[in-house]
Specification:
Blueprint: H1 2-27, H2 33-48
Length: 57
């Protein structure tokens, strides 16, 4: 029974390591220019039109 638990733990550790590796590789990717431009436009729009009191949009 312990051997089976050890195998499960080993598989879980391997999955964790691979998920962390993929996640870290995605974090290191640059934001595409098109997406960065869209974010800038959205931020500029928010700055140009301040919210009215009670406006939840």
């Amino acid at each position: 029974m312990t051997d089976e638990k050890d195998k499960e733990a080993s598989v879980d550790d391997l999955i964790d390591q691979n998920l962390k590796r993929v996640y870290n590789s995605v974090l290191s990717e640059e934001v595409p220019d098109r997406f960065a431009k869209l974010l800038s436009q959205l931020q500029a729009g928010e700055a140009a039109s301040p919210r009215k009191e009670g406006d939840n949009s």
